[in-house]
Amino acid sequence: MAQETVVWFSWDEGIAKSKDENKKVIIDLYTDWCGWCKKMDNTTFRDPYIVEIINEHFVAIKFNAEHREDIEFHDEIYKFTKGGRRGYHGLAAKMTKGKLRYPTIAFLNEDNEFIQAIPGFQNTVTLEKILMYFAHDNHKTTPWSSFQRNYKSKTQITPSEKKSNHTRLVSGGVN
């Protein structure tokens, strides 16, 4: 029976599960105050096909970019940094190369090495393409422009997702 929701894990649980199952990781980098993060939770991440793709091909991690506890990852300790109105976690800054925007979706390969971080709200059609691009390693061989042009989506944009997003990916990275 198909799962109705994405199975989200904490950072430590998700990284351990990824290693155990040899699966890629998708990280939903969010903050509690981010309206677009909540919209993505209530629309995109509830689409049955998106749920199916994520749960089948990835270990899903929810990561609050304002997480206050230290995290050890790849022999480095990442800490919360006070600054601005709220501060940020060093791991969030590492994933986004210092360009903290929310929501951001980040991907790790099966060895838990960063592949890509993609900022901004993603509607179901766009996220489906992105997920399939990484799930089947298309990012290693096919330019994003070719992949998205040729990919036939199985989802549709819901009325609440009408605000368009313009995600640009290139082979090997996001622009």
Shape: globular
Count of the separate structural domains: 1
| Overall CATH architecture | 3-Layer(aba) Sandwich
**Helix-strand category:** alpha+beta
Query: How would a crystallographer describe the biggest sheet?
Result: 5 strands, mixed
Q: How many whole angstroms does the radius of gyration measure?
A: 16 Å
One letter per element, helices H and strands E, the order comes to: EHEHHEEEEEHEEHHEE
Average of the residue pLDDT scores: 89
CATH topology annotation: Glutaredoxin
* Number of DSSP-assigned strands: 11
CATH superfamily: Glutaredoxin
Q: How large is the count of helical segments?
A: 6
Distance between the termini: 38 Å
**How much beta, percentage-wise?**
15-25%
Q: Which spans of ≥5 residues are poorly predicted at pLDDT below 50?
A: 163-175
Structure, described:
The chain is α+β, with helices and mostly antiparallel strands and 175 residues long. It has one domain (8-174): Glutaredoxin (3-Layer(aba) Sandwich). It has six helices and eleven strands. It has helices at 11-21, 35-42, 48-57, 90-95, 124-135, 144-150, and strands spanning 8-9, 24-30, 58-64, 71-73, 76-78, 80-81, 88-89, 104-108, 114-119, 169-170, 173-174. The protein has a five-stranded mixed β-sheet with strand order 1-3-2-8-9. It starts with 7 loop residues before the first strand and ends with a strand.
